[in-house]
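Retro notes
What went well: the complex prediction finally ran end to end.
Inputs used:
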Amino acid sequence: MAEMKKVTALVGYEGNTQTIEYEVPAGEPGVWGADYGFDIAGVKDIPRLDAIDKVTGRAKYSYDINRPNMLEAALVTCPYAHARIVKVDTSAAEKMPGVKAVEKFPNVEGQKANYAGWLIAAVAAETIQQARDAARQVKVEYKELPFVYDYESAMSEAAPSIRSGGNVTEARSRDKGDIDRGFQEAEVIIEGEYETQVQTHSCLETHGCVAEWNNGELTVWHSTQGVLSVAQAMAKAFSSEGLDETKSRCITQHMGGGFGSKFGPEEFGIMAARLAKITGRPVKLMLNRYEDSVMAGNKPASRMYVKLGAKRDGTLTAIYAKCLNIPGHSGGASVNVPFFEHYDCPNIKVEEQNVYINAGNARAFRAPGRPQGSFGIEMALDELAKKLDMDPYELRAKNVSGSLYKAVPYELKLGAERFGWKEKYQKPGTQTGRFRRGVGCAVTFWASTGSPGGAVVRCSLFSDGSVEVANCSQDLGTGHRTMMAIVAAEELGISPEHVKVSIGDSSLGLKGPASGGSTTTPTVAPAVRSAVYKAKQKLFEKVAEKWKTTADDIDCQDGTVFSKSDSSRKMAWKEAAALIRKDTIITLGEHIRGEVPEAGTGAYGAQFAEVEVDTETGKVRVIKIVAVQDVGKTIAKAQAESQMCGAVIQGVTSALLEDRIMDNMTGRQLNANLEDYKILTAMDTPEIEPVMVDVFDPINNASAKGLGEPPYIPTAAAIGCAVANALGTPVRRIPFTADMILAALQKKEG
Ligand code: MOS
């Protein structure tokens, strides 16, 4: 056992704090508590370290990597929704100008293509135009099969089975308490069916990579959420050809969005490396927008029957949901978490089934399953509130509870105040004019405890005072680099611009998380802090030696190193660092999970939406969103706010616009482009007020929680409730298209 020391910290959140005492290993820092005295983290707006590189175009995304002598590759994909691939003839393509290699995907002949977009072959040529021309000359013989394009066609008696085991999975059930008793105890019961659509990830940078071999070693510049996982998977894919993890390198310096769709090397990424190996030249293979839309993942559609039981005073007694998740030909999602975690209720049961259709596979999408489930539970709660003649905010406030690390009642209240709920709320459907305003609210929850795999960060402190922190994590566009610099700068009392951050390269050899599950900050921030803290202690020992005191007596702040006991003793940071001479301080820090009871309860939040519905055109405009979110301890304030706004925007666009449209005649996606697949633009983006709540939680030494996913979960639900409030009748499917709004109004008002 490592030697332990006692530390204390003020934890919790405004109005509910407590000083706790606990133990950490002797060489490690205690948690950043509310009483720490922050100079930078959460206090200052620090511009992204790579802001200038990005706005000047100097930042190189995978798409921008051009290697000497590089070939470009294009794909051949199946045009049919469901077909047997009989034969693939590449001979004509091979003779096309500029073509260097044409490769079939492994075992493709005889395979069954399960959606339009299925991978058939790839062509590498001198230019992308030549590669695309040649791709059209690959002759494929298909035997077309009947297809299913939506859940109803997939579930019908006559449906062709598209997977072994059938189109519908066995129902899986999650239970708490006794659902039958819950409904017996209920005095009011409501039920409704809610639907959410398929949303594609639509990353601005499409999926793909540049692959290059040198002396049996592979380097890929890959647009990925996980440099380590890609390097590892590539090593595995080429292991029989002598590649191992020491020779497989993945670089991702800048990335144009992933949202859960970019974790692996992809079949086409492995194909790019294959083509590079065959031709002996670097190969770039980036998906075009069509390919990205149909094959690179999506958020599954859902259909949720929800039934709620409550006492007359609004206390929930039963939550029941029966859900279909519709992921495409493979993948899945589970929508049950919001039904269980958002509100207190003793009796809950959620049954779920997947229904497979002939469409591209689902992938993790920003809080998988949560926005769907959130839409189901929140819309139903508003219907319950209406039946109880209760303010829906009051109904929610009644059914949430808090604790030292669970701030949801506080967040709801704070959000209502910031939003002006009392002033804005009117009973459903009380307005009568052409433009009708409505308000809605919803809560959110995300476990947000960091990656169990942990992280190792290396801190190098040089004699000129410069500092580097390094880790095999990557910045998807969130500002991760800047976050790491801020943690180091806060700990050292120097400016973040003076910290060099090295990430996005698997060859750094320092364990780091794939950026998923909102785990990057809660995993890497504590490892940065640990490494930097240890380096600082070593520097303090040098200073203490000079001043004939002990390292405990030394501290640093605002670029100055000083003695705590003797105020006459101080020196500039650089002067202190010079004491190191040639003996560069190098330390490793690890993410260590705090062993404090109740810590890591998860991140809750609440959102409030105001909408305006034009009852003549059916257009819904979102006016304002107030997003209140437990962020653990705010670290990179400006980047965290930006992340909250990004999440809300992705929620608004899912509520109003985005929808994958499958053609019932051909089974193809009709809008596999960014012209017909509508995404919110700046013009329709509402005013967003991000409200970050610091909930100091000793789950890790930086009190850090993840932020990518939680603020995306409740947005569409809050908007849905606001639309129901404006119209006086719910519209139970997103996106809220004009025809659905008008149909709902017609049904209600004739
Ligand atoms: Mo996420 S959906 O775990 O990138």
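What we learned: The radius of gyration is 28 Å.
What to try next: split runs per interface for comparison.
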